[in-house]
Amino acid sequence: xSLIQQVLVxxxxxNLNWFExxxxxxRVDDLIVCFAGLSEKIPDFPLAPGPKFHKxxxxxxxxxxxxxxxxxxxxxxxxxxSEFDSNQEDHGGTExxxxxxxxxxxxxxxxxxxxxxxxxxLVGLGNMAAQCLVLLFSxxxxxxxxxxxxxxxxxxxxxxxQHCLQAGLWQGIQWMEIQPSPDKEENDLIFIYSELxxxxxxxxxSKLSAxxxxxxxxxxxxxxxxxxxxxxxxxxxxxxxxxxxxxxITPAVYEEVLKRFQEFRPREKWxxxxxxxxxxxxxxxxxxxxxxAQQGYTYVAYVSFAEPNSTTFLGRSELAHRSRSPExxxxxxxLCRQIGISPRVFFDLQxxxxxxxxxxxxxxxxxxxxSDIDSEMFRIRxxxxxxxxxxxxxxxxxxxxxxxxxNQKIIFVCTHAKWKTYQEYHHLMDxxxxxxxxxxxxxxxxxxxxxxxxxxxxxxxxxxxxxxxIKAICNRSHDQWGEKDRFFxxxxxxxxxxxxxxxxxxxxxxxxxxxxx
Length: 517
Fold this sequence. Notes:
mainly alpha
């Protein structure tokens, strides 16, 4: 596309909204439409364009990305709100828009249209939509009449839009049955299609909010029907409700955590960067960690060690007994920052039942990474006939964590694209830079181990695992403590326990727990 644009510029072609070198997200769909149109129209595309095809290149691109001057008919994506509102007034106001708008289309006689140009003139579409409809129908008119074609086009467009909105659990719309048979339903369908075309020529995820506003106005849902949101249980609904007490205490709790983080110095008197938050059941420990992410203080890598059959919310995590090294948590957060996943969204991805698929993929990736590390360590033990030194282990760990990041990036990218389609998260599409950067004096990530009491009591193997986790936390802080490597660990428990207060090494200290009671 860059080559084609440069050729057209050199030839003096104008009135195109040229693509930048790095295409903005809201223009990716236009880029793909251009590419598809050029591939279909031009032989041997995308080989170097010959002069005889320059005009064809221009015509295809002008149909998708024209520059519209103020006095020209507004294009598909630049139509103003005032024009949109006045168009509705022309159709008889908003008292009963789905009926009145359909009547307007009937009176105008869309069923009498013989081709796309007559339809375009009838419903008053913008210049870009008009050109594209005429072009699309011209390729099909030999095989099908216009009325059949326009109904199929409308059904396909509305079907895709409704599918995306339903998958994202958008509320307030009475979904329309596709392939309607009565005349009235067909009239409604065609009018809705003509209005959708004023938003975008083809369905785009970036336009979901505009589609929702339009369909909510034209196909309002009965307010008495119970909405279906992301929440899977009453516990989850309560957890995600704005609880003033939890929101109120979060700054103070985070301040205590931050105080301990800033006091910590590797290789000095402190054993490691960790503390505990202590409080009885339902004291808000988990909610506070969620609010730390929600309010954007920093990222929270969350894992719960609740009993498998526990009814405690948030329940046992898929990653329980898998997150044994801080390096993986830091790698996940690094991917979030690169891709544009905010602290709030990352926390939800780890805990909400609706994102169980992401959690399961993360679990298997962790298993694979740790298995590779263990296999490599076993191989080295055989070579050296003994335990590998710490330096060898660090090299192995770094090697496989980098491989983990490369493999997981596509998972995070796909997840990032999917969560933006949800109504609850759509307004978080454009994450501000200050939400992604590491704030000065703050940890890059908080490692949160919920229901951690079970790790230090009863089962001997779990106690060993807990000690290994503490050792890994301490080793990481001693080996690497650059800005993006700085973290702090928080164990959530219902009471104070010795492992949080006593140090395995007598000359080291641990931080005093934070008591919520």
